[in-house]
Amino acid sequence: MTRAELLEKVLSGWFAIVGEFRGWNASSMGHLDRKTGLASKRVVLTFVVECVVGGGFGIVKIMQRLPEAVTDPTQVKVELERGKRYAFEVDALKKENGFATAWMSLREPVPID
């Protein structure tokens, strides 16, 4: 995606975080459904992205729940280039423990040219 295409999408309401990819981690996370009381485990992929946050550079953790078919975090492969700029389309964003944390659904990060 070019910068002009990115700007056009953002101006049309696309909610994304753009930054330099620094690394990733896959891990199993437990979840307890409060309504049903059922517990489940999902593999969650965490992208670490450096971007401008509040006027200065900061780190954003972008979390992505993988499909239930993925049960082993060691089998997850991410083919993003460290130091390259990507756009991550996110669904939610919050600040916790001094870090910005975002959640994205099953979309691939888009490289920015």
Brief digest:
With 113 residues, the protein is mainly β.
Description:
This protein is mainly beta and 113 residues long. Helices cover 8% and strands 53% of the residues. The protein has one helix at 3-11, and strands at 16-32, 39-53, 56-65, 85-89, 92-96, 99-104, 110-111. It has a seven-stranded mixed β-sheet, with no helix packed on it. The model has no long low-confidence stretch (mean pLDDT 88).
| Helix/strand class | mainly beta
Main sheet: strands, sense, barrel: 7 strands, mixed
CATH topology: OB fold (Dihydrolipoamide Acetyltransferase, E2P)
SS element count, helices: 1
Q: Report the top-level CATH class.
A: Mainly Beta
Q: Judging by the overall fold, what is the CATH architecture? A: Beta Barrel
Anisotropy-based shape: globular
Instruction: Work out the strand percent.
Output: over 45%
Strand order of the largest sheet: 5-6-3-2-1-4-7
Q: Which runs of at least 5 residues are low in confidence (pLDDT < 50)?
A: none
Radius of gyration: 15 Å
Tally of separate domains: 1
The ordered H/E elements are: HEEEEEEE
The helix content is under 10%
- Beginning-to-end CA distance, first to last residue: 6 Å
Oligomeric status of the shown chains? single chain
What would the average pLDDT be, to the nearest integer?
Answer: 88
- Strand count: 7
Chain-wise SSE layout:
Layout: H1 3-11, E1 16-32, E2 39-53, E3 56-65, E4 85-89, E5 92-96, E6 99-104, E7 110-111
Parallel strand pairs: 3-6
Antiparallel strand pairs: 1-2, 1-4, 2-3, 4-7, 5-6
